[in-house]
Design brief:
Number of helices: 11
Structural class: mainly alpha
Radius of gyration: 21 Å
Strand content: under 5%
Length: about 230
C-alpha cells in the first residue's frame, strides 16, 4: 500500500482535483465490496460446504449466533484475513502505470478500495464494541466508518439487511433498488442453488455444537471458580 502511494504521489497528475474525488469513491467501493462478500457468506452454502464452508461461510454464520465474540480477538486475528482478502486491490496498483493520466487515476481508485477495505473488520469490530477508542467514536460520529446503530439492523433475523460493513454508505441505495434479492434470483436461476439453505442463515447442527461447547466452557469456568473459593 505504501509503495503504491509513493509511486502515485511522485506522478505529476496526482496533485489534481480528480484524486480528491477518487479516494472517497474508493471508500465507497470498499463498502460495496464488503457488502458483496458479506452477502455471499451469509447467503450461499453452509459451514459444511466443501472447500469454502468451514473457512469462509462458518465465520459469518458464527458471528450471527455470537456477535460479541469478535471483540475478544486481538488486532492480528481481527484484521489478518481481511488484509489477505483485500490484497488483490493492494497488489494490482503496483503494476498499473502512472502514465497516461487515465491509468494513474485507475490505479489510485483501485488502491483506495484496497486501502480502506483492509480495515473493514476493524471498523466492524468497533461497531460492536460498547466503548470503542475515542478516535473511532469520532470517525463514527462523522459517519466515515460503520456505526453501531446502523449495523445493528443487520443483526436481526433473517440477517438480510445492511450487508455493507466498511462505512455502511451503500446500504440505503442497495436496499432501495433491492440489489441483493435481485442477485439471489440471478444466482438461483443460473445455478439452481437455494439462498440460505439452512433456515435464517443458520446451520442448526453447527450451532448446537457451538452452543454446547460454550455451555461446557461456562460450566468449567464456574467449577474452577468454586474450587478456588473452597481453597481460600
Amino acid at each position: 500500500m505504501i509503495v503504491s502511494l509513493v509511486r502515485f504521489v511522485a506522478a505529476p497528475g496526482f496533485w489534481d482535483w480528480p484524486t480528491l474525488v477518487l479516494i472517497p469513491l474508493g471508500l465507497l467501493g470498499a463498502d460495496f465490496v464488503s457488502g458483496f462478500v458479506h452477502w455471499a457468506g451469509d447467503t450461499w452454502g453452509t459451514p459444511k460446504t466443501p472447500l469454502v464452508g468451514w473457512r469462509f461461510v462458518r465465520p459469518f454464520r458464527f458471528h450471527h449466533a455470537y456477535p460479541l465474540d469478535m471483540v475478544k480477538s486481538n488486532f492480528f486475528t481481527t484484521n489478518g484475513d481481511n488484509v489477505l482478502g483485500a490484497s488483490p486491490f493492494l497488489i494490482a496498483p503496483l503494476f498499473i502505470p502512472t502514465e497516461p493520466i487515465g491509468w494513474l487515476y485507475a490505479g489510485v481508485f483501485v488502491w483506495a478500495i484496497g486501502a480502506f477495505a483492509m480495515w473493514t473488520s476493524q471498523f466492524h469490530l468497533w461497531a460492536h464494541m460498547k466503548n470503542p477508542p475515542r478516535f473511532a467514536r469520532v470517525l463514527q460520529s462523522c459517519r466515515l466508518i460503520l456505526t453501531k446503530d446502523h449495523h445493528q439492523k443487520h443483526h436481526k433475523l433473517p440477517y438480510q439487511a445492511n450487508y455493507c460493513i466498511t462505512t455502511g454508505w451503500c446500504n440505503p441505495f442497495l436496499t432501495a433498488i433491492r440489489f441483493f434479492p435481485a442477485m439471489e434470483w440471478v444466482v438461483s436461476r443460473a445455478t439452481g442453488m437455494t439462498p440460505r439453505p439452512d433456515e435464517g442463515g443458520n446451520d442448526p447442527e453447527f450451532y448446537e455444537k457451538i452452543k454446547a461447547a460454550a455451555a461446557a466452557k461456562e460450566a468449567e469456568a464456574a467449577g474452577t471458580s468454586k474450587t478456588q473459593d473452597a481453597a481460600h
